[in-house]
Structures are given as C-alpha cells and as structure tokens.
C-alpha cells in the first residue's frame, strides 16, 4: 500500500467508514484496529480527529466528504475559512500565485477573484493533497508546481499580479517561531524578486509578531491588517505595493458570524494624544485586533471616548457610543478590591473578571475574594489616571 494519504484515504469504502464513524472517539477506534483488518484504521482514526477540527475551522471543506485533511502542523497553521475569505476580499486581478501553497485554503478563495492561479509547494505530500482536494472541490484551473518559492521564481515565465506568502513558522527542531528572519522562505531574499516584477504582495505572519518590527524589515508596506475571529487574534497581513512610500494604514478587523467589525487608522493618528477622565456612565474595551494594532489613542479620538489611564486601555463616556468596535458596558458602581464591598453587587457570588493595568492577576483576585466565574456581572480591575486602583462593576450592553 502507498504511503500517500490520498491513496490510503480516498477509496470509497474508507470514506464511507470515516463518515459513519465521524462521532466516534478516534483513540478508541485506533485501539480496535484488529476488528477491521481490511481498513487502515490508524490513518482513519487520525483523519477523523483532524476532520473534527476542520468542522468549525473549515466548514465548506468539511462538508465535502472527498476532502482529505493533513495531519499535524499543516492543519494547525492553515488559515480558517473566515480569514481566507477576508484575504480574498483585499486583492483581485488576472493572476495570483501562492508561493507557500500548503493545504491550499488561501489560494482556493483568492483564486475566485483572479482569472489564473498558481500553487507552489515544496512538500510532495501536501502538493498531492492539494491537487486531490482542488479536484474534489471542482477547481481544475489551478496550475501546480512542486518545489520551493525560489525554484519557482527562477523558472517563472510571466509575473503574477499578486503573490501570497504564508511563511512556515517552525524551525528545524519543529518549534514555533514568529520573527520574520526565522520563517521560511527567507522574505529578505524573496521580496526583492517580487518587487522587481512590479507585483502586489500579501504576506501572512504570526499575530505574535511586533508590527513595528515587521514594518522595519518589510519594504513598501501600504497596509497592515490585524485579523481576529470572535475577538481571538489570528494573523497579521502585510500588504506590499511596489514603490509605495506613503504612510502605513493599520486596519483592525474582528470577524464575527459573517460580519466585520473594522477600525482603520494611520500611524500619525495613532500618535495623537487622547483625552482622559474618571469613569463616567459607560465603559468600553476595544477588540483584540485594535489592541494588537496599537490603536489605543486613535480609538479614543475616533469615537469620542475618554481613556481611564495611559496604560489601562479602557475607555468611558457619558452617553452610550453605538457600534463601538469591542465590548460596551454600563457602569453600575466604582469600588475597590474588597470581598465585603463587592458582595452587594454579586448576589450569586459570580462575576466575569478582567484586569487592565492592575498589579495582581484574575486568579489572585478570585482567591482573595472567593468570586466564582460566570454570571451577568463584569468586574474590571484597573488603574485610573490619578494612579488609584479601582474595581468597576458593570453590566454588558
């Protein structure tokens, strides 16, 4: 039997078995291999485990029973359906080339805005999987190349309008890395080759990367997109335009159930000093993308809300700001961290606790007060502009 996942898992009896046992415990199933001597049970069990991960991350692909998912890092690092669709909304043209094809999620959606698409992948196993999956999805017009990005660019006859790169974020010891110089392929080598082609470049990088450091390394960046899904920061997108030398726009996007919570600001706007005040009627916490993008000052000026402290990143206003990009709360009371003083506001002894610029952790607060997790009350332990430590008792709007 071939070692290829495509050969092992694509036969009809195997696919039917996977669908019939999709809700089984993969580990328990693997231990029953002797019951099914005619089937590759270990590979089937692993595929079931991986498919379960794909159900929420890649629903369109999960729904297609012919799709085969890779095991391990490739599945972990691939884009979700939401983030892939967001990338596709940013670019269009005649030809798009994905220099780090992987599972092919990003190129599948990117290609829908282009007449031609090229898939480049150095892993033979992944390249075979992508070929199989594109066919299963009814996509037959993606040209494939098995090799490295550098090898492909040496042989390329016609430059693309847009190149997409999602560098591998693992080192030789299979440990996670996120600094640009640690990723593969080497962007310091690849980017100049693409700029010579006068092409747009879209680069996906780790959300752990410091954006300012990325801007120091990458040339001609016009936009940095910070993309979150349901307030969980997933990736940074650096959009490079040949010869662009203007100000960089930072775009903080939070994808929530098919909707985009978006906030844009320039580097100059981000340096504008915000207004400060004590807590008023309402409290606001920006979403994760805004926090990562560094829009602490911009969000204050754009929405007319006051900051509680330079380092607290919580905001307040007298009147409710509609459609604030983040969480909004009604302030019920202002107090201090004291079990006795908090008790009247917590009849069931429960609260959702957040700390912002506060000297002790949520775990320590719970230990000190005995407050359990949950309920309808939200406590924000923070520091005000005069340096005083407070706890704001809030209800979600």
Overview of this protein structure:
The protein folds into three domains: 52 residues; 172 residues, Vaccinia Virus protein VP39 (Rossmann fold), CATH 3.40.50.150; 127 residues. Helix 2 packs across helix 4. The N and C termini lie far apart (59 Å). The strands form two sheets. A nine-stranded mixed sheet has the order 3-2-1-4-5-7-6-8-9, sandwiched between helices. The protein is 32% helix and 28% strand. By secondary structure, it is an alpha/beta fold. The mean pLDDT is 93. The protein is flat, with a radius of gyration of 25 Å. The protein has 17 helices and 16 strands.
Query: How far do the termini sit from each other?
Result: 59 Å
Assigned CATH architecture of the largest domain = 3-Layer(aba) Sandwich
Quickly give the structural class.
alpha/beta
CATH homologous superfamily assignment of the largest domain:
Vaccinia Virus protein VP39
Number of domains: 3
Mean pLDDT level: 93
Shape: flat
How many strands appear in the DSSP assignment? 16
Major sheet characteristics: 9 strands, mixed
Count helical runs: 17
List the helices and strands and how they pair.
Elements: H1 5-9, H2 12-20, H3 26-30, H4 41-57, H5 59-62, H6 73-77, H7 81-88, E1 93-98, H8 105-110, E2 114-121, H9 124-136, E3 142-146, H10 149-155, E4 162-165, H11 187-196, E5 200-205, H12 211-217, E6 221-229, E7 232-240, E8 249-256, E9 259-266, H13 267-270, E10 282-286, H14 288-293, H15 296-303, E11 306-307, E12 315-317, E13 326-335, H16 339-342, E14 350-356, H17 362-369, E15 372-383, E16 389-396
Parallel strand pairs: 1-2, 1-4, 2-3, 4-5, 6-8, 14-15
Antiparallel strand pairs: 5-7, 6-7, 8-9, 10-12, 10-13, 11-12, 13-16, 15-16
